[in-house]
From TrEMBL, chain A:
Any GO CC annotation of this UniProt entry: cytosol
Single GO BP term: P450-containing electron transport chain
PROSITE patterns, A to Z: 2FE2S_FER_2 (PS51085)
Cofactor annotation: [2Fe-2S] cluster
UniProt-recorded Gene Ontology molecular function terms: 2 iron, 2 sulfur cluster binding; electron transfer activity; metal ion binding
Pfam families: Fer2 (PF00111)
Name of the protein this chain belongs to: 2Fe-2S iron-sulfur cluster binding domain-containing protein
Record Gene3D superfamilies: 3.10.20.30
Keyword line: 2Fe-2S, Iron, Iron-sulfur, Metal-binding
TrEMBL record, chain B:
Endoplasmic reticulum is among the record's keywords: no
Family to which this protein belongs: Belongs to the cytochrome P450 family.
Protein name: Cytochrome P450
Keywords: Heme, Iron, Metal-binding, Monooxygenase, Oxidoreductase
Organism, scientific name: Bradyrhizobium cajani
Lineage, top ranks: Bacteria, Pseudomonadati, Pseudomonadota, Alphaproteobacteria, Hyphomicrobiales
Highest taxon, organism lineage: Bacteria
An example Gene Ontology molecular-function term: iron ion binding
Listed cofactors: heme
InterPro entries, A to Z: Cyt_P450, Cyt_P450_B, Cyt_P450_CS, Cyt_P450_sf
Length: 107, 405
């Protein structure tokens, strides 16, 4: 199974194994990772699963849909060009090794 | 009882239960029945109302996330809109399926987006502080009337842009709406019989000229100018906020206060770390599930966890039972404000998941934060009284005394 790496705002690094068909958000919450709230449970309605994607991976992610784009305007910390909602990143074998940075807060 | 590989389609293949989840005795204490429903099987049949039921987390989640099979356009109450005339014109969002739902949903999502929440946050927080001022003056009060109702009433109608007159119709109207999802029992019949003045008030307030500029209502009407919705659709979408936006949060905040008053260790924890306020509210929504149930109607024959259900059948989803399913939750019957609540179905799940969830969380968070910052102790000083409704769970009165911090 592909594994992904989360880098917390304080620099702490956590690597999590993803499960079949999981999103990055689901893998994170299943491992009890702090820093991703996911209040809407992955329904693209809350913007509390915000991550900054490591630049080298950005182009390999699926495109941002309109709903995600609108939600990203409302994230608790500043939206940057590499901002994504982790519930909208489905993990595929091609994303093995993906690096995501966590914002300081989600609300 | 369930027969393995049974070719039987329909009710005979699933466990039948002789319970009425809309009876007063059930509302008084639903938990033993919830357990019975969960343990009987993944899908059950309720003879009392001739409906299927799902009470385990996995099946409730599955039904919510398959709107093509389990539709909403035939009503999310017991009444099947294909067979009976709805008591009011159907909702354009709650009682709609894609693609119609997709368009109206996009409008309300924008009106109630995280960006908009940032704009109203300070106002909502200031009103919560003002409410606590008033409560500290009183010391002893009814936590339902003076807190759970008074706070949302002090902000939500204004946020919508409603006129000052007639607001006393809002909670009674919502009570009718949520009773009407139930079966034709006394609660539903009496609610509908008395609904005319409340309906008239609501219909009037949904008109563009009656909504103050800048409010959620006016923002919905503004979408008519962009051509996203028609001028006849806008008032009905405003109606959705009037129906679903007030009484739900009254019961949500009521649930949170009732939990924190009952479990002083959790109150203490919250006082020590105010950043837990949002989680404390969310956990109360899981724990009490202010919205207890919704129905769907099958659009085709379908197999759900081994049960074959025919077309046109009503399926009752026990959100509250799913939120306490031990298959999904660790210590489901304890109220724990540090719990990871992500995935609970108190706001639903999938395409119809509560479009006002951010409003609800904001109200809950700022209210609990204001309370915990300035109050040391909340004591229940009298017998809490339950309010009975076919869909909503909450109290009618909760006498408390507070000690200032
Ligand atoms: C604690 C408070 C609340 C709870 C527990 C709650 C619960 C729910 C649930 C369970 C649903 C799903 C219905 C379904 O799947 O058929 C829903 C939908 C909805 N809620 Fe809420 N709600 C709350 C607050 C609000 C607020 C504050 C608003 C408006 C500002 C609102 C407006 C709506 C609307 C319009 C829908 C229909 C969405 C759709 O069908 O796409 N709710 N709510
Ligand atoms: S979990 Fe809510 S938007 Fe991703």
């Amino acid at each position: 199974m592909p594994a992904i790496t989360f880098i917390h705002a304080d620099g702490k690094i956590e690597r999590v194994e993803t499960g079949e068909g999981e999103s990055a958000m689901q893998a994170a919450t299943r491992h009890g990772l702090d820093g991703i709230l996911a209040e809407c449970g992955g329904n693209a309605m809350c913007a509390t699963c915000h991550v900054y994607v490591d630049e080298s991976w950005l182009a390999r992610l699926p495109a941002i849909a309109d709903v995600e784009d609108a939600l990203l305007d409302g994230t608790a910390t500043e939206r940057l060009p590499n901002s994504r909602l982790s519930c909208q990143i489905a993990i595929t074998p091609a994303l093995d090794g993906l690096v995501l940075r966590l914002p300081e807060r989600q609300v | 009882m369930t027969v393995p590989n049974s070719p039987v389609i329909g009710p005979s293949a699933v466990p039948h239960l002789d319970v009425d989840p809309f009876a007063m005795s059930f509302f008084a204490d639903p938990y033993p029945t919830h357990e019975k429903l969960r343990e009987a099987g993944p899908v059950v049949y309720l003879d009392k109302w001739n409906v299927y039921g799902v009470a385990r987390y996995a099946e409730v989640h599955a039904v919510l996330n398959d709107p093509a099979t389990f539709c909403s356009s035939r009503g999310v109450g017991l009444s099947d809109f294909k067979k009976e005339t709805p008591w009011r014109p159907p909702s354009l969002i709650l009682e709609a399926d894609p693609p119609a739902h997709t368009r109206t949903r996009a409008v309300l999502s924008k009106v109630l987006s995280p960006t908009v929440m940032k704009q109203v946050r300070d106002r909502f927080a200031a009103a919560a502080e003002a409410r606590v001022d008033a409560l500290l003056d009183k010391r002893s009060f009814d936590a339902i009337t003076d807190l759970a109702e008074a706070y949302p009433l002090s902000i939500f109608p204004d946020a919508l842009g409603l006129k000052a007159e007639g607001r006393e119709h809002l909670i009674p109207y919502a009570s009718v709406v949520f009773n009407a999802f139930g079966p034709p029992n006394q609660l539903r019949q009496e609610a509908i019989e008395r609904s005319a003045p409340h309906q008239a008030y609501v219909a009037e307030q949904c008109q563009r000229e009656n909504l103050a500029p800048g409010g959620f209502g006016a923002c919905i009407h503004a979408r008519v100018d962009d051509g996203e919705i028609t001028a006849t659709e806008a008032p009905l979408l405003v109606r959705s906020l009037l129906s679903a936006g007030l009484d739900t949060t009254v019961n949500g905040i009521g649930a949170a206060v009732y939990c924190l008053a009952r479990f002083p260790d959790q109150w203490q924890r919250l006082r020590e770390d105010l950043s837990l306020a949002r989680g404390a509210f969310e956990e109360a929504v899981r724990f009490e599930s202010p919205v207890q149930t919704f129905f769907r109607t099958t659009t085709r024959e379908v197999e759900l966890s081994g049960a074959k259900i025919g077309e046109g059948e009503k399926v009752l989803m026990f959100l509250a039972a799913a939120n306490r399913d031990p298959r999904r939750w660790d210590k489901p019957d304890s109220y724990d404000i540090t719990r990871r609540t992500s995935g609970h179905v108190g706001f639903g799940s999938g395409i119809h998941m509560c479009v006002g969830q951010l409003v609800a969380r904001l109200e809950g968070e700022v209210m609990l934060m204001a309370l915990a910052r300035r109050i040391a102790k909340i004591e229940i000083t009298g017998e809490p009284k339950r309010r009975f409704n076919n869909t909503l769970r909450g109290l009618d009165s909760l006498p408390v005394t507070i000690t200032p911090a």
